[in-house]
Design brief:
heterodimer; A: mainly alpha; MetI-like fold; 9 helices; B: alpha/beta; 4-stranded antiparallel β-sheet; about 25% strand; globular; amino-acid transport (chain A); cell membrane (chain A); transmembrane helix (chain A); MetI-like (chain A)
Amino acid sequence: MFDFLEGYDLLGSFWTTVQLTVFSGIGSLVWGTLLAAMRVSPVPLMRGFGTVYVNVVRNIPLTVIIVFTSLGLADTFHITLGAPDDLKAQGFRLAVLGLIVYHAAFVCEAIRSGINTVPVGQAEAARAIGLNFTQVLTLVVLPQAFRSVVAPLTNVLIALTKNTTIAAAIGVAEAGLLMKEIVETEAQLYATVAIFALGFVILTLPTGLLLGWFGKRVAVKR
Amino acid sequence: MAEVSVTKDAVPAADELVVLKNVNKHFGALHVLQDIDLTIARGEVVVVIGPSGSGKSTLCRAINRLEGIDSGSISLDGKPLPAEGKELARLRADVGMVFQSFNLFAHKTVLENVTLGQIKVRKKSKAEAEEKARALLDRVGVATQADKYPAQLSGGQQQRVAIARALAMEPKVMLFDEPTSALDPEMINEVLEVMQQLARDGMTMVVVTHEMGFARSAANRVVFMADGQIVEQATPDKFFTAPRSDRAKDFLSKILHH
């Protein structure tokens, strides 16, 4: 029944999807956290940068960002992220960059909403024992904020997993690109779409369940 | 402006630990601190009382700059309060603060609450910090709760941990911002006893409270505030038996005759 898949690297393409998700996920978490720190910092310049970044980036379509990394950064400015000749690696790295730039804005806002759930008294008590701004944030506020935003961060991660298909626009050989290829070549449209839909559900459903359990486990009791 | 009178013996200048001069602060249109002059001597226990909204909590919070001030100066041990940055953090470490709502770090155990500042600010080793923390927790009577999280403790226990957390920094002065106001009545005494003990041990304390019993028994001086001003200062005996200002008479008549 699934003979038509012969010759296609189905697992390989999903493996690329997983890699895109993992690298972009980690990158957006780090960059998003830094952005959130900027948005609550006492320095007006940093607050301004964070605000402008989030409001610009989250309102640009991801396709535009991903296509720009290839046509703009690589082709025009020759920023090839250490892979000028290896087009496969270059496309992958540019796609990861684009995904990080985009999803960090959503991570930032999720974390900022978490920061708002931490009572002001927690930060005041931390300042009162002589901790500086960075210490207050990293030792007291963020650890509590993260625990309350596991659920919204899970949403971002699931969206990110599915958004990796946009990397197809610059030729990264992930699941979305392979699906397009199969649909164009083979007759079994419904079966193909169903297989790829199932593939993504297999990736994201356990993520959601696992992180849902994790979020309950680490929740701060007040 | 109301007349300010100081009945306590003048303290030698060298022993002035906290000095507020001409401090003013506004919250929008509300002039919450009006030309506050207050000097607290080393080892002195000053209790600040007054009606709600009189500015006593703001005064307390201004001393370690959790609230900024608009004008005037506040100095600690001869050094003026820096505006921001590292210097301010260092100064805050020397001023212990106990809050009405305890504010224990909710994601850390009781022991970690008391060791955090020692390790990160005083740069002590973990073992050293834990030893001191356990000794302090023992002193405030919650040694057996060291490995629990704040939410598992009663309010009185949490507040005693908060006192231990502040003491762990070896502060020069302790500020108490209505430390018993959020407690169930049967837990108030366990916290007051710890504070009494501290006062007997010679700690310099500024206590904003509605506990008149504590003011009578532990204070060297009572500062009465109303409408953003210090209306009257006196020893507890004099203040409670013979208040001079009408505002203080009115306040006392409302709280003492039940």
